[in-house]
Prior knowledge:
By secondary structure, this protein is of the alpha/beta class. The chain folds into two domains: 2-36; 53-249, Alpha-Beta Barrel (TIM Barrel), CATH 3.20.20. 44% of the residues lie in helices and 11% in strands. Strands 1, 2, 3, 6, 7 and 8 form a six-stranded parallel sheet that branches. The chain has a two-stranded parallel sheet with strand order 4-5. α4 (74-84) packs parallel to α10.
Amino acid sequence: MAWQITGLAAWIAQPRLWQPIVAALVADHVALTAAGFVPRGRWLGPNSDRLPEGSRQRDEVALTFDDGPDPEITPKILDILGQAGISASFFCIGQRAAAHPQLVTEIARRGHWIENHSYTHSVMFSMLPPWALKRDIVRAQEVLASASGRAPQLFRAPAGFRSLLLDPVLTHLGLRFVSWTRRGFDKADGNAHRVARRVVGAVEAGDVLLLHDGSPARDRNGRPVVLEALPRVLDALASRQLKAVPFLLEAAAEMPA
Length: 257
């Protein structure tokens, strides 16, 4: 923003130099936009893509799910996790949570954490002005807090894309931006083996793993690929003596009752 102001001041002071000044301003916009499309980038604000040091020392990895809740898929994921005795973090879309509040309640009742994944999950999320960003996030926050009994502490942007304007909004709302370390691309690939391999192929303690309980790809038989990939992921983690946990900050190390 300082660069933009400086450029405009230079333009006013030296209008004959408008071409290089405009080129510099355009380059600045391009750089900021490109930075927003790097989910693990830190150029536009803090970004948590790994667990705190204490979790790494305990050989923990964070298991997270995006884009739910889904009445067909989420309950089955809950059953898989329940059978394995594992808790996870669910980054829920507010609009879907509003349509299925009882499912959000059930996720929380089973000992999982509910976090904020925006209300509309709009493809234009990173282009929104500050007041629209705040309205969308607060709306999701209210729906998720009402259904789960706990206000989310973490925020993950749709597709991980953000703008320079997002961090001040999150800071004002007391939310932490979270991305991921490893993802399975289970929204695009219907092959469970490949999805699981991407998630755990080179997994290390402290990694944040991303799968989807909302709108995942389906295999040749029409089955949501995440339902086949998740058991493979859990088996691989167990074989490497890594423990799947929710994404927790050190200050919030206690699980909900």
